Amino acid sequence: MQRFLVFTSETPRAIGIVPLYQEGLPDSEKNHQFLSISLESISNQKILVSIRLLDIYSNLDFFERLDIDPIYGIAGIIYDEQEVYLSLVSDADPIQNSVNEIFRVTKIRLLSLLTGDFDYNSTDFPYDQYSDSENEFYAPKVDNSYLGPYSMYNVKKKTSFYRNYNVRSFKLISYLEKANLYFSQTYDLTKSQQEQELDKLSNIFDPSSPESEQTNFWHLQRFKRNRFRWNNFMLESFIQFQRRMSFSEYTLFQKRKYILNLIQGYVGCYESYTRANYSDNAPISYMMISRLSASRIGARFLTRGIDDYGNVANSAETEVVVSSGNRWSLSYVIIRGSIPLFWTQQGIQIGSHKAELTRSIDASVPAAKRHFSELITHYGMVHIINLVKALAYEGTTVPKSFLNSIDSGNSFGELELGIAYDVLTKKLNLHELIGFTAFDYHQKVKGGQFDNISSLMNCIAPVMNRQRIFMKKMNSDGLFSVESWQYGVFRVNCLDCLDRTNVVQSEIAVAVLYTTLFERFSAEMQLNAGEINSVLRQLFVESGNALSKLYTGTSALKTTVTSTGKSGLSGFLSDASKTIGRFVQSSFNDKNKQDIIDTVVGNKQESSQSRRFFYYDPNFDEFKKCLSARMAKSTRTENIRFFSTTFNAGGQGCSNRGMESWFGDAIRTKANVIMISMQEVVNLSVSSVISADTKNRIVWTDMILRFLNASRDPSFDEYVLVASEQLAGFTFDRRCRRADKKRESS
Question: Which residues form the SAC domain (predicted)?
C-alpha cells in the first residue's frame, strides 16, 4: 500500500505529495519525484491548476512537511465559497475478507490551494492543553521511523491559533466521510471484471513497441470516459495532466498511485472454506461491488428521471464476483436506474406521491435513445424489468386521449408513469436490442405472497440463459483464459429503484450464480447450497441498505424479503419506521444535501456553485492558435427559426377556425420551434380555477399540433409537443420539429 507525506510551500502557495520512503527497494524502482499542485490563475470563466512532477532532491527543500499522518492519496480539487481545496484521503478502513486491498474512506482532509491557514485543524492538537512536562507524560511515543530521509526536512510549526473551516466546508467534509466511498490501489473498482478483460483485449498492440506508440492506441484508450469513477469532476485537471504524458511517463505515474479512483456505493466480501480437490484448499470468495454513477446523482425527490445527456437518477451497476483463489472467477452484472423520462415528483404530499412529466414522451425520445445506446454499447442486449404498477394497456394501443393527458403536464400516479415508459420503449424502435417485461410487484406479492416472484423468474428464464455469465479459469500454463462472456444485462427499476428493485435483483443474481456454481464446479468441490444462498442474499441486503441511505437517508425497505424471501410483522414495523424517516429526511435535509452533492460532482456550474478546474499547460496558447485555424473546417453554423405567439381564448373551446391566420407565418417560414402562450384557457370561475381544469388545454394542444402537421411542407419534419404548463387559466406550450428535439432541449 503506497502512502504519502504532505509538504506545503507559501511563496508561492503549493502543496507537495511525496511518496513514503520504501526501504528495501532497488534504487531503480524508488520514486525520486513528488507531485506539486498549485493555482496558476483564477477567473470567472475558469481556474487553471499547475500540476508538476518535481525532483525530490532539488525541489523539496523549498517545502515544509506537515506534521500529520501519511495520507492514502488525492481525491481531487473542490471549489467552495471562494476557497479552492485539495481533497486528500487521510484515513480509511480495510474491507474485511477481501482478496484485494480495498478500503472505505473514513477521513477527508481539505487543504487550501490559496492559503496555509487550514493546514492544521483541531484534530492535530490533541495534547496542547498540557504543559511541556505533562505532554511528555501524556502524549504517546510516536515512531517516526517511517519518515526515513524525510525526517531531515523542515516541519511546519503548529500554532495554537488555527483557522476553522466555514460551516459549509464542514458539511462538505462530513458528506464525503459518510458518502460510502471506496478505493483500491491494486484492483480497479470502477470496472467489472468483464470490462477489465475487454480493455486488455482491445489493446491489440504492444504498447512498448515504437509502432504502437505511433498509432497512439493506448492514448485513445485513456480518453474513454470512466462511467463509475465517482470523482471524475474533482479529478478533471489531473486527468488532463495525464493525457499530455508520453506512454512511459503515464505508465510510471499510474504505478505511483498519487490519484485515487473512488466509487460510491458498496463493497462487501465474504470467504467460505470448503472441501475441494485442490491442493491449496483455497476458500471461495464472494464479493459484491455496487457502483453508483455520479452523472445524475442527488436526493430522492430532487433527482428523478433522465437528463439531456442520457443520464438517469440513481443509476447503479451491481457486480457479484465469486472466485476460488487464482483458479477460477465468476462475475455477474445487473443494473438499475430511474425511468428514463423527464419527470418530477413533489416530496411533501398527502397519500401517494403524484408525478408529472416535464417534457412529453416524444420529447424524451432523444435522451432515452442516448441512454440505451450507451447501455447497449457497454453490455449488449438490455432487458428491462419494470416493477411499477401493471400496464393497463399492455399489448394494445394506448388511447390518444390518455397520452395527451400525460403529455400535458398533469399530475398522475405510478400506473400512468409505467404506461408512459412502455410507450417510450416502443417509440425507440430497438426491439431486437431492448426487451421489456412488466411485473406489478405490489399486486403480485399482495398479502405476503412473495413466492409469486417465481412467475417473473420463469418468464425471464430464457433471457437469463441467453445472457450467460462472465467466467475465467486458470490454464495449465498459469494464465487465465475466458470461458464465458456475459452477453447482455437486466435493467431493473421501480419508482425509486431501491426496495422492490433490491428484491428482484437478488432473486436474479442468486439464481444465475447458484446454477452456474453447481453446473461447473460441483465435481471439484463440495458446495453448500444453503450457504451460497444466504451469503449472496446478505450481500444484497447490505448493498441495498447502502444505496438507499445515499438516495433517501434511510436503509432499504423489504430487507427481510431480500434475505429470506418472506416478511412478517417485524418486517412491516421496520418498513413503517423507515418510511417515516424518509419523509423527515426529504422534508428537512435533502435540499442542503443536494447543494453539497452539486458542489462535489460539478452540477450547477452556471451558478458558480461549483467550478471546473483546468490543467495549466504552458503550451496551451500555441495549441489554441492551431485549434482556431482548424475551427472553420470542423464546425458549421445553422439558422434556427423561432415563432412565438400569444392568444386569449376567453374560456372558449378550441375550433379549427382561424388557425391559418394564427400560424400561417410559422408554416411559411418553417419555424423550428413554436412557443404558444394562452390566457383564459378555462372559464375564470371559482370552480374552474380551484379544480385546475386541464380539459380545454389538452384539446387546444392536440388541435394545434394536428393543424401544424397537416399544414407543413411534406419534406419538413413533423412537429412534436415538448412541454406544456398551466397555471390557473394561463398555459404555455413549446413545440418543435422532431429532428430538432435534441437541439431544443439544449
Answer: 172-553
CA distance 154 to 151: 8
Element (H, E) at 40: strand 33-42
CA distances from 720 to 305, 306, 611, 665 (A): 20, 19, 36, 18
Would the pLDDT of 230 be above 50?
yes
Between strands 47-55 and 613-615, the pairing is: parallel
Domain housing 655: 642-745
Cβ atoms of 181 and 72 closer than 8 Å: no
Separation in Å, CA 478 to CA 184, 325, 484: 25, 13, 18
My answer on whether 155 and 289 are in the same domain is no
Q: Name which of 170-184, 258-272, 393-407, 447-461 the model is least confident about.
A: 393-407
The model's pLDDT over 91-102, given as tens digits with 9 standing for 90+, comes to 999 998 778 899
Number of structural domains (the chain) is 3
Percentage of the residues of the chain whose pLDDT score is greater than 90:
38
Q: Which residues pair with 91 in a beta bridge?
A: 107
593 and 662 inside one domain = no
Average pLDDT over residues 674-678: 89
Using alpha carbons, select from 579, 734, 546, 720 the residue that is nearest to residue 644.
734
Collapse the DSSP code of 695 into the 3-class scheme (helix H, G, I; strand E, B; otherwise coil) and give the result: helix
Using DSSP bridges, classify how beta strands 83-94 and 73-80 pair: parallel, antiparallel or unpaired. antiparallel
Query: CA distances (Å), 743 to each of 268, 709, 725, in order?
Result: 43, 19, 20
- Its pTM stands at 0.86
Domain check: are 542 and 446 in the same one? yes
Q: Which residues contact 209 (CB under 8 A, 6 or more apart)?
A: none
Query: Same structural domain for residues 584 and 646?
Result: no
In this prediction, residue 211 has a pLDDT band, given cuts at 50, 70 and 90, of: very low
Residue 258 lies in a domain: no
- How does strand 64-65 pair with strand 47-55? unpaired
Q: How far is CA 467 from CA 335, 490, 512, in A?
A: 14, 9, 10
Give the pLDDT of residue 608: 58
